[in-house]
Amino acid sequence: MDLNLNIFIKKIRIAIEIAYLGSLNFTYNGTRNNYETRIRIADRKAIKELNAEFDALFYNENYLEKELSEWGRELYVEPVKLRGYYI
């Protein structure tokens, strides 16, 4: 298994009875303008399995936490200011 994978999971659980999976952000653009995905799950057995899978990934010591700013520095080159100009 490649442990260098970046995992991004968005899961919202409302009580114990409903779970949502998908890319939807609860913002104006996320709910009105963007083309987003969302799956609503109401099956308690499926939600229990989903929670177990999420916890196994979230609490796995092989997947290290990274701050968003750290990811940004790894993914994007920050401009350097030299003599008053960005290069």
In short:
With 87 residues, the protein is α+β, with helices and mostly antiparallel strands. The chain is built from three helices and five strands; from the N terminus they run E-E-H-E-H-H-E-E.
Detailed description of the structure:
This protein is of the alpha+beta class and 87 residues long. The chain has one domain. Helices cover 32% and strands 20% of the residues. The protein contains three helices and five strands. It has helices at 28-32, 44-58, 68-75, and strands at residues 11-14, 18-22, 38-41, 81-82, 85-86. The strands form two sheets. A three-stranded antiparallel β-sheet has the order 1-2-3, with helices on one face. The model has no long low-confidence stretch (mean pLDDT 77). Residues 16-57 form the Phospholipase D-like domain.
Integer count of domains: 1
Tally of extended strands? 5
Strand proportion, as a percent range, falls in 15-25%
End-to-end separation:
40 Å
Number of helical runs? 3
What is the chain-wise order of helices and strands? EEHEHHEE
**Major pleated sheet:** 3 strands, antiparallel
Give the averaged pLDDT, no decimals. 77
Helices and strands in order:
Layout: E1 11-14, E2 18-22, H1 28-32, E3 38-41, H2 44-58, H3 68-75, E4 81-82, E5 85-86
Antiparallel strand pairs: 1-2, 2-3, 4-5
